[in-house]
Amino acid sequence: MVSTATSDPVRTRPYLLLGTTMLLWGSGFGSSKVIVDYLPHPVVAALRFGGGAVALLIALRLFRRGGDARRASWRDRARAAGAGVLGVFVYNVLFFWGLSLAPAIDGSTIVPVMSPVLTTSFLLLAGKEKASPARVAGLAVGAAGALIFFAGSGGAAGGGQGRLAGDLLFLLSACCWAAFTLAGRRVLAGIEPLEATTYATLSGAVLLAVYSVPSAVEVAWQSVPAHVWLNVVFVALGPTAVANLLYYRGIHAVGPASASIMMFLVPVVGTTCSALFLGESFGTVQAVGAAVLLVGAVLAVTQGRLGTR
């Protein structure tokens, strides 16, 4: 698969876009954690995706082509907005709730590693992908790694029941993202990626805004530090508006299974940022579980052919 991408110039650009997406997403875990330390998690989610929706609406106004806009029916737009309910609203309610309980380093491992595993599992169960021995073995190894990781959550540095609960919320958010990824090609059947991403983000942002109202009225806005607002701007523009657009373009070009492989870059970026900038770490058992989970996930998604010709 890798050799195909590098030898075919038509397919190289989508993988470069997906790689940029993963770098932005990986850095977004730590930035989001900084904001959650100062603001309630429903408010953080609303700020992030409200800002992302505004940026995407401006981009849609500036860059979409007239022909593309005419081809998209109201049904296409409604389908994109519906995908945003799951992939933006529900995902982020669970994700930011988890981030308020567990370190960002946990989320940067669980979400991007479990999402492609869950995506691959569904494709196998639905008969859309072949259940090769390598894939079955990878899923089994990945499941074992996940069990080890969650078992170690309570005993990790800064652990306890709160961290375990946060990790389970991260797992649920990964389920939402897997479903969102699988819906990508159907959503994009009659609509351009920029327009689809905009409507999905906008619908999710509206619901997040309504959900955040009770928490927002209790915030002492004048006491929020400047560096928190800088992080809000970054996560709204980079890991949200730009990254989600590039991800949908990648799905449109190479499909959900291939796009999900790129998510293995996110734990590397996310754990590095969390360790360097937040001083977070895994416990020994969690580290072992994360390594086993990552090995199993790579094996399951790539069928053991990563880097082969």
TrEMBL record:
Claim: Transmembrane is one of the keywords in the record: yes
Task: Give the Pfam families listed for this entry.
Answer: EamA
Major place of localization? membrane
**What is its membrane topology?**
Multi-pass membrane protein
Q: Where, per UniProt, does this protein localize?
A: Membrane
Where exactly are the transmembrane stretches of this chain?
15-36, 42-60, 80-99, 105-125, 137-158, 164-184, 196-214, 226-247, 259-278, 284-302
- Which SUPFAM superfamilies does this one have? Multidrug resistance efflux transporter EmrE
Instruction: Identify the keywords attached in UniProt to this record, alphabetized.
Output: Membrane, Transmembrane, Transmembrane helix
Q: What range(s) does the EamA domain occupy? A: 15-150, 165-301
| InterPro entries on file | AA-Vitamin_Transporters, EamA_dom, EmrE-like
Which segments of the protein form a coiled coil according to its record?
none
Concerning PANTHER family, the annotation shows: EAMA DOMAIN-CONTAINING PROTEIN, INNER MEMBRANE TRANSPORTER
State the family named in the UniProt similarity comment for this chain: Belongs to the EamA transporter family.
Q: What is this protein called?
A: DMT family transporter
Organism equals Nonomuraea guangzhouensis
Q: From which lineage does this chain's organism come?
A: Bacteria, Bacillati, Actinomycetota, Actinomycetes, Streptosporangiales
